[in-house]
Write a structure and sequence with these properties.
By secondary structure, the chain is mostly helical. It has helices at residues 23-32, 36-40, 45-66, 75-91, 96-104, 107-118, 125-143, 147-157, 160-165, 171-184, 187-194, 197-209, 214-222, 228-237, 240-255, 262-282, 296-312, 315-322, 327-340, 361-365, 368-379, 384-392, 395-401, 410-424, 428-439, 445-450; strands spanning 10-11, 14-15, 453-458, 461-466. Helix 1 (23-32) packs parallel to helix 4 and helix 19 (327-340) packs antiparallel against helix 21 (368-379). It is elongated, with a radius of gyration of 31 Å. The model is unreliable at 1-20, 351-363 and 405-409 (pLDDT under 50).
Length: 472
């Protein structure tokens, strides 16, 4: 009769196998580590045993990569690898002691090397994907809230792992890789991204393809947008569609419920210079859309205007942009050029809905005139130099003439009212100009009334004044 086997080693009073001989034992251990109390009392030696299984199975994968004929024997090894990663992943959840113990065994380097080998395998897809996903989850968990682990993950994973996984066709692999990147990034490592822009651009592309995925969005908002230097370098290398995606995230950050911090505002000032300079240089490309053709550069420029409108609505950014060379002049010049096409029944700028970057030319162009007038109005807010500049450039008649008495265009009317109020506030010269235009029949009195203004004659002087009940 065979001698009785010794009882399994205990973990917090729960029975578990001592040498972890097979897949079922690994699964039992994985299940145990779902409980916080079991994680906290796990013997350190158990992780060495799991690592031994992982190393042994990894050698099988390595051999299969060298000799494709060995792929048919990989099924059991992939199962063991998957369960090793699940076990280690669970052990790291909210347990820094286990994170440190597992890291000190050099498990991170082995895991990264193994994940990179997965790219070279030609085996049954689902088994490989499951092992791949679990390996990335382990790396994400061991790095979570653990700066020492984050540093080691970065050393082993950057840049090759990120370059490989951010472009992977499997959405879960992309999401888990994004989680690792988000967790590992800090201000110093951001500088390394400037030398590996493909990774940063891949994140933008990932968000473009998977807008509902949380991690790519957080990487952009919580890391990329804090570095104007990185954003400037990225913007120069990105496609116009990727630029639109980045600008959409920038707008979401500015209009979000969470108030901007001092550092966030400082970063936005850095972005404002890029946005304003690019718009000044490229704004005329939007005229390509008058032919109804799809042009990504024009669509990106439309999005720049949307960003400028939001930036000039921020008091901390307004004064900088009010004095930006050429910005006001370009806005008026572009409004005039678009106004020339307004009589064309096919003019796609002759609408007033809000801009939404959905890829459709008409949708993208809607509201462009409204936003131009909004930008001009913002830049003239309590700024006499800009008020006078608009007058000098004959911008006031242009703005008034942009407001057709058409109830189907309420947004355009509202922004014209807003701009005229900012142009005439404490500026008698601009007030006199509009009053004289009304007297000469160049400004429609009924339209002015709808806008909340009226002209009153006081002796020999015409005075423009706001009515008591202006439109909302």
């Amino acid at each position: 009769m065979a001698a009785p086997r010794p009882p399994p080693a205990g973990l917090s009073g729960i029975m578990m196998p001592a040498p972890i001989p097979d897949l079922e034992a690994l699964r039992a251990l994985t299940a145990l580590f779902k409980e916080q109390r079991n994680r906290e009392t796990a013997p350190r030696t158990i992780f060495q045993r799991v690592l031994d299984i992982l190393k042994r199975s990894a050698r099988t994968v390595e051999l299969a990569c060298r000799d494709p004929s060995g792929v048919e024997h990989l099924a059991s090894s992939l199962q063991l690898i998957t369960e090793c990663f699940r076990c280690l992943r669970n052990a790291c959840i909210e347990c820094s002691v286990n994170q440190n113990s597992i890291r000190n065994l050099d498990t991170i380097g082995i895991a990264v090397d193994l994940i990179l080998l997965f790219r070279e395998l030609r085996v049954e897809q689902e088994a490989l994907l499951t092992a791949f996903r679990c390996g990335l989850q382990f790396l994400g968990n061991i790095a979570s809230r653990n700066e020492d682990s984050q540093a080691i993950v970065w050393v082993h994973a950057f840049p090759e792992l990120f370059l490989s996984c951010l472009n992977h066709p499997d959405k879960k692999i992309v999401a888990y890789c994004s989680m690792i990147l988000f967790t590992s990034l800090n201000s110093e490592r951001m500088k390394e991204l400037e030398e590996n822009l493909n990774i940063a651009i891949d994140v933008i592309e990932t968000h473009q393809k998977q807008p509902d995925s949380e991690w790519p969005f957080l990487i952009i908002t919580d890391h990329f947008l804090k570095s104007p230097e990185l954003v400037r370098a990225m913007y120069a290398k990105m496609s116009n569609q990727e630029r639109v995606t980045l600008l959409d995230v920038l707008i979401a950050k500015m209009v979000g419920e969470e108030p901007l911090t001092e550092d966030g505002t400082t970063a936005l000032l850095g972005h404002a210079e890029l946005i304003a300079s690019t718009f000044v240089d490229q704004c005329r490309v939007v005229l390509k859309l008058t032919a109804g053709q799809h042009d990504d550069e024009a669509l990106a420029t439309i999005r720049l205007l949307d960003v400028l409108c939001e930036m000039t609505a921020n008091t901390d950014l307004l004064s900088y942009l009010q004095g930006y060379p050429g910005l006001l002049e370009r806005a008026i010049d572009l409004l005039r050029l678009i106004h020339v096409t307004a009589n064309d029944t096919t003019d796609i700028f002759n609408t007033s809905a809000c801009i939404r970057a959905e890829g459709d030319v008409k949708n993208m162009a809607e509201g462009f005139r409204s936003h131009l007038i909004r930008l001009i109005g913002n830049m003239c807010y309590k700024n006499k130099d800009n008020q006078d500049k608009v007058n000098e450039l004959d911008g006031i008649p242009l703005i008034l003439d942009s407001c057709s008495p058409d109830d189907s265009n309420p947004f355009l009317t509202q922004w014209v009212v807003y701009a005229i109020r900012n142009l005439t506030e404490d500026n008698s010269q601009n007030q006199d100009l509009i009053a004289k235009m009304e007297e000469q029949g160049l400004a429609d009195a009924s339209l002015l009334k709808k806008m909340g203004f009226e002209v009153e004659k006081r002796g020999d002087k015409l005075v423009l004044k706001a009515t008591s009940s202006p439109p909302p």
